[in-house]
Design a protein that fits this description.
Blueprint: H1 2-19, E1 43-47, H2 54-58, H3 71-82, E2 87-93, E3 101-108, E4 112-121, E5 124-139, E6 144-153, E7 157-167, E8 173-185, H4 189-192, E9 199-212, E10 217-230, E11 244-257, E12 268-278, E13 286-299, E14 305-319, E15 326-328, E16 342-344, E17 346-365, E18 376-393, E19 405-416, E20 420-429, E21 434-440
Parallel strand pairs: 1-3
Antiparallel strand pairs: 2-3, 4-5, 5-6, 6-7, 7-8, 8-9, 9-10, 10-11, 11-12, 12-13, 13-14, 14-17, 15-16, 17-18, 18-19, 19-20, 20-21
Length: 444
């Protein structure tokens, strides 16, 4: 691990050197002067948004004209605007000439580009995919998302999607449409049995509509048509004897989100609840699935943050196919049991993580980069202490907390440009067996 230690030291040294020269750290007011007490906002101006509509930015601002300036609230708003994923950098200042006027200054990212895609499937470094897509992250300057692409390799897929976060103007509605084809390696040990594994060929047509209640809350309804065909049509792999299941799903959900930064939160609350009826009007699939996910982040002295998460997926009804089971060991993982596969009709988990800043988040401007949209980088380095626990069970069983899989450990989290997080964790299970984990994205 000598090479790893050298890389960590070099990364930290670069960030510290940059922070000491030309860059501003998050969490520090970038205004030249602090506002006088009880100053009231008289106007808000936005600069740097060549494509993005001004209202897209202003609707994330939690302070409005007529409110008293609050430095902490402005910092929170700055992170909310950055979390849109449209900007490399966001600053909010108040000029000394008239410090009742807020100036929001943004540096836009590149929005329309071909996307060479490569990566790992379900956090497994043995399963790589590669492909190409075309993506527009800010269609019409309204934060609308257009995507068309395909990947090959492990679990190939083709997808077309459109997301509009703001339709019907004052009604504050949003919508999303998606068509996808995929060929997925079966995950169910029950379906595989003693024979060789097989693939599932899936088609999905999805439509959703929702309402943004305010800056923090939203609710939605969805409907989907699903087609699942197995390449080896043995009994039990689909509910239909023909090896093909077709079914409709309808659902509803709600979300509450006050996180400061979606990519790596350190304060705020995220809560989501969803109910989906899978199997409506026709077909053999027939069950109801409930799910919730609650995450709380509390900022402590010194920039340290405590994160807590709990989630559950619960199923009820006469017919739950194996391909609709829930799993640990794929998209959801338990550190300490990172590569252990757990399968059931229900699942629950609890997680805790203490995030300790080594080099707090900061902006770096690199004028030598030829493309303007890639000249501003947001970087940081955090240490973490964590504990995870989770379990699965079937409908006819009672959950046994004592049998839950558990793990704990420590790690280093690298915050990289374009909202990327790379993690190196050392974890141990309840028996003291250790494992190294190299993962992309925040743990939660």
């Amino acid at each position: 691990m000598q090479t790893l230690r050298i890389l960590i030291i070099v990364f930290a040294d670069v960030l510290l050197a940059c922070a000491a020269t030309v860059f501003a750290q998050d969490g520090e007011p970038s205004a030249p002067l602090a506002p006088r007490p009880n100053q009231v906002i008289s106007a808000v101006g936005v600069l740097g948004n060549e494509l993005t509509k001004t209202e897209v930015i202003l609707r994330e601002l939690t302070l409005q004209v007529g409110d008293t300036i609050d430095v902490a609230e402005l910092e929170y708003s700055k992170n909310r605007i950055y979390s849109l994923g449209l900007f490399n950098r966001v600053d909010i200042t108040w000029p000394p000439i008239d410090s009742t006027v807020l100036i929001i200054e943004v540096d836009e990212r590149w929005y329309l580009y071909p996307v060479p895609m490569f990566g790992i499937v379900e956090r497994n470094w043995d399963n790589w995919y590669y492909g190409l897509g075309v993506k527009h992250d800010n269609f019409r300057g309204r934060n609308e998302k257009l995507f068309a692409g395909f990947v090959l390799g492990y679990n190939p897929w083709v997808s077309l999607s459109y997301v509009n976060p703001w339709i019907l103007e004052d009604e504050h509605m949003f919508m999303e449409s998606n068509f996808a084809w995929s060929r997925v390696v079966n995950k169910s040990r029950i379906s595989q049995g003693e024979g060789p594994n097989f693939d599932e060929i899936r088609y999905k047509l999805h439509q959703g509509f929702g309402k943004r209640i305010d800056q923090f809350r939203s609710a939605w309804i969805t409907a989907s048509y699903n087609y699942v065909e197995v390449t080896d049509k043995r009994a039990g792999r689909t509910l239909s004897d023909a090896g093909i299941d077709r079914y409709l799903t309808v659902g509803a959900g709600a979300r509450h989100d006050t996180r400061d930064l979606a990519e790596y939160p350190t304060s705020g609350i995220f809560g989501m609840a969803n109910i989906v009826k899978k199997g409506v009007w026709f077909g053999y699939v027939d069950f109801l699935q409930w799910s919730f996910d609650v995450r709380v982040y509390q900022l402590l002295p010194g920039g340290v943050s405590l994160g807590l998460r709990t989630f559950a997926v619960l199923s009820s009804g006469p017919s739950v196919p194996n391909y609709e089971h829930v799993f640990f060991g794929f998209s959801e993982r338990l550190r300490g049991h990172f590569h252990t596969e757990l399968e059931g009709e229900n699942a629950a988990g609890a997680f805790a993580e203490l995030r300790i800043p080594i080099v707090p988040r900061l902006y770096i401007h690199v004028p030598e980069v030829p493309v303007r949209q890639f000249r501003t980088w947001k970087l940081g380095l955090y240490a973490a202490l964590f504990a995870d626990a989770g379990m699965v069970w079937d409908r006819k069983e009672h959950p046994d907390i004592a049998s839950a899989s558990r793990g704990y450990g420590a790690g280093l989290h690298f915050l990289l440009p374009y909202s990327t997080v790379f993690r190196i964790d050392r974890a141990w299970d309840e028996a003291g067996r250790g494992q190294w984990i190299f993962d992309v994205g925040a743990s939660f």
